[in-house]
Specification:
By secondary structure, the chain is α+β, with helices and mostly antiparallel strands. The chain has helices at residues 144-149, 154-191, and strands at residues 2-4, 8-11, 14-18, 23-29, 35-42, 47-55, 60-62, 71-75, 81-86, 95-103, 106-109, 113-118. The longest helix is centred in the last third of the chain and has 38 residues, at 154-191. One of its GO terms (biological process) is regulation of immune response.
Length: 192
């Protein structure tokens, strides 16, 4: 089965990147392992796709129809940190990416990194990677006067609250689908 686990720490949680650029997702492991699996959940295609397995010896095994030019895994010499590099970004790369290790017939999943690829980045973003801080800042007010009031304008927090609710509700069917797919995926991996 699948388990999300605190022994796998994935960063960043969200990436907004421009098409034709590249990006990187980090996975820190606090456990022994033989290597790291990387998967992508596509909401649009409704599938959970195996991308690549990188052994602790550095050998990579790619999933069906997965381009080695697009995806590569780099491990640190300590074998506790791995990074998935995605190049030539396209909107078809949108999805949630998971690092994973196999332990006692279970796949332990990282927390996931949501990747969004756009043709043009919003002007407010100066980099191609938008990482959320460890402790989320719910609102940021620009003027000192507003910060003295102790609350953000409803113009900020109402859409933010609505977005969070929509995100949480969208996770329910995803969790159900992942639950159904976990056994099939586990069997497929161990048949290889």
């Amino acid at each position: 089965g699948f388990c999300t686990n605190l022994l796998l720490h994935q960063t960043p949680q969200h990436i907004l990147a421009q098409a034709n650029n590249k990006t990187e997702i980090l996975c820190d492991l606090k456990m022994e392992h033989t290597g790291v699996y990387w998967y992508r959940w596509s909401q649009e295609r409704q599938n959970f796709e195996f991308l690549v397995f990188s052994s602790s010896l550095g050998k990579a095994t790619y999933g069906a129809n997965i381009s080695q030019d697009k995806f590569s895994v780099h491990g640190m010499s300590s074998h506790t940190s791995y990074s998935l590099h995605i190049s030539h970004l396209h909107t078809s790369d949108n999805g949630t990416y998971y690092c994973s290790v196999s332990q006692s017939s279970q796949l332990l999943l990282g927390s996931g990194t949501q990747l969004g690829v756009v043709d043009v980045l919003p002007l407010s973003l100066k980099t191609t990677q938008a990482a959320l801080p460890e402790k989320p800042t719910w609102c940021v007010t620009k003027s000192k006067a507003a910060s003295r009031k102790g609350a953000c304008s409803p113009v900020v927090w109402v859409p933010l609250t609505a977005s969070i609710l929509v995100l949480l509700l969208s996770l329910v069917p995803t969790a159900r689908r992942l639950h159904r797919l976990r056994r099939r995926l586990w069997l497929r991996i161990h048949r290889q």
